[in-house]
Structure formats: C-alpha cells, structure tokens
Design goal:
This protein is α/β, with parallel strands linked by helices and about 300 residues long. It has 12 helices and 9 strands. About 40% of the residues lie in helices and about 15% in strands. The strands form 2 sheets. A 6-stranded parallel sheet has the order 3-2-1-4-5-6, sandwiched between helices. The chain has a 3-stranded mixed sheet with strand order 7-8-9. The two termini are about 30 Å apart. The structure holds NADP nicotinamide-adenine-dinucleotide phosphate.
Length: about 300
C-alpha cells in the first residue's frame, strides 16, 4: 500500500518534507474543491478526503454527493460556492462541453493565487480555451489521468500533468503517480495519445476475437495465446471486470483525436463505438461481444 501523504497544510505554512519539493514551491492546498462526482470523480474525491484534505464537493446531480457528505466533505450548492475559499479546484467532468458549461459559473469565483486543476479528458485545445478565460492571478494545471475506477480508488492513477505542476504536486500525488509533461496542455495532449492507442487496441482485440469465431478458433484458446504476445495489455483491458470507462466517453476521446489529426483507423473505431447506442454507458470491454467466453 502507498504511504499516506499528508496534504493538510496551508499555503501559508511550511509544507512537510515531500521528496522533490523545495521551499520555493509552497502552494499546495489544504482547501480543495472537487467538481464532478461521476464514476471517476467519486473515488478520487474520496481518496483526497481519506488523505486528510479539507474537501468541498459539487456535482450537477446533487444526490451523488451524499456519500461524501457522510464521510466529512462539505457539499456546495454551485461551482462558485465550491470554489469560494478553495486554494485548489479540481474538475473531473465528462468532456469539453461539460467543462465549458461549469467554467462559466466557476471561473469568476476563482481567487487570486488559486489553482484550477482540470483532470477530465478534454484535449489541449479546450485546455488553452480555459486558460484564456482564467481570472487575473489564478493558475491552471491540466492533469488528466490514465487508469480507471479501480486505480482511482487505490490512489494509483497515472496523472499526466502540464503547466505549473509544482503548485499542486502533493494533491496530484495523493491520486497517483505524477508524470510531468511540460507546458500547459501537454498533459491533455499526451492523454489523448495514450487513450486513443488503448481504445484502438481494445477495438482490434474485439475484431480479432470475431475473426477467431469465424475461423473456428475457441476464444479461450485465442485469448490464452494472445496473452503471450505484445497484445497482452490490450487483451487485459478488453477483458477487464474492474474498469468502468463508458463507451460514450471513449467515443468522445476518439472524436477529440480525429479532430486533431487525420486518423482513418481511429475514425473507423469511432464509428464502431457509436454504432450500438445500447452499450454507450457500458464499459469499453462491451466492444468484445461474448467477452465472457474470452475470460
Ligand atoms: N471512467 C474511466 O475509467 C476514466 C478513466 C480516465 C479518465 N476518464 C475521463 O474522466 C472524465 C470523467 O469520467 P467518468 O467516468 O467519471 O464520467 P461519468 O461517470 O460520466 O461522470 C461525468 C461527470 O460529469 C458531470 N457532468 C456531465 N455533464 C455535465 C454538465 N453539463 N454540467 C455539469 N456536470 C456535468 C456528471 O454530472 P451528473 O452526475 O450530474 O451527470 C458527472 O459528475 C471523462 O473526461 C473521462 O474521459 C475516465
């Protein structure tokens, strides 16, 4: 189990000794606002609470905040109320549209010196759009994550961070392993690269299993043999029972990618992801029809 990380200090006091931190980087936050308590946001916020953060949460559908209220979080009635008095404001929402909508109410409430940490998957263009709307004195870090709900609950996400990461490093480290990517938007860009490789890999595994069916190769035998090839990682994700990454969110990530570059294979994957509306809320592993037979 990862050691507990104390993130309770105030930006006015000296931070505890955390490896890699210097005294010039003393702005991590005791007071954290967390906006968006969906499949990922809820375990991430819970993790911060368990690590000692003074947490205020907000979710569009208020009922989803109730479990955290019972665990000690303050529940805000609006994004602006959540941001009031917060040093760090985290957004974990479905995509660029949701972030832009919430930003309308949130941005004017950001205090000078506070840091907005955008952790949803929205792509670099939307991150730069947010930066252009930041109020004077507020900062922005893009920090989308790889890893699903299981790793969110364990504080074992891979956090891809761009911008002034040092301002919020202890907060991000409470959620997982922090990879510093460079200037603002670089985390969001790397996230799109990685998630699209993963989604494409899962789609290819799904088709390979359909090929196995067509050729009379039992799926179990195909899976066992595939696990010994470089496709093992994609196969593991395609057959995961722990992940909860909705097909509609994968389609969003593919749209962001194909809007940024000419990617004919991913365009086909995007079409496959939207072909069956009945699986849009199911985990990505739903692409693998007859997945039970693969396990
Ligand atoms: N699930 C994963 O495995 C995973 C892994 C890595 C990254 N991500 C990324 O992380 C982000 C969140 O994923 P998730 O799985 O937590 O999604 P989710 O379960 O669909 O939750 C989406 C969240 O966004 C809120 N929301 C949506 N539209 C909104 C709007 N217009 N205004 C305000 N709030 C709005 C929802 O509020 P309501 O409760 O009111 O609907 C909910 O809190 C996505 O960008 C996704 O691509 C997901």
């Amino acid at each position: 189990m990862a050691p507990m990380l104390d993130i309770r200090w105030s930006h006015r006091s000296r931070p505890p000794s955390v490896s890699g931190m210097s005294d010039s980087h003393t702005t991590p936050s005791a007071r954290i606002a967390f906006l968006g308590l969906g499949a990922m946001g809820l375990p991430m916020a819970r993790r911060l609470l368990a690590q000692g953060a003074h947490l205020t949460v907000w979710n569009r559908t208020a009922a989803r905040a109730e479990p955290l209220a019972a665990e000690g979080a303050r529940v805000a009635a609006s994004p602006a109320e959540a941001a009031d008095g917060a040093d760090t404001v985290i957004t974990m929402l479905s995509g660029p549209g949701a972030v832009a909508e919430v930003a309308d109410a949130l941005l004017p409430a950001l205090a000078p010196g506070s840091v907005l940490v955008e952790m949803s998957g929205i792509g670099p263009k939307a991150v730069h759009g947010l930066a252009a709307r930041l109020p004077e004195g507020a900062h922005l870090v893009d920090a989308p994550v790889m890893g699903s709900v299981d790793r969110a609950a364990q504080g074992a996400l891979s956090v891809l961070a761009g911008g002034p990461v040092e301002r919020v490093r202890p907060v991000l480290e409470a959620l997982g392993n922090v990879r510093e990517c460079g200037p603002l938007g670089s985390g969001a860009a790397l996230k799109l690269v990685l998630i699209n490789a993963l989604i494409g890999g899962v789609a290819v595994v799904a088709e390979a299993m359909e090929l196995a069916d067509a050729l009379g190769v039992p799926r179990g035998r195909a899976a066992e043999a595939m696990a010994a090839t470089p496709m093992a990682g994609a196969l593991a994700r395609a057959t995961s029972r722990e992940a909860d990454f909705a097909v509609r969110l994968a389609a969003k990530d593919v749209r962001l990618a194909t809007g940024a570059a000419h990617l004919p294979l991913l365009e086909a994957v995007g079409a496959a992801l939207t072909a069956d509306p009945s699986i849009e809320d199911a985990d990505l592993s739903a692409l693998l029809k007859g997945a039970a037979a693969t396990a």
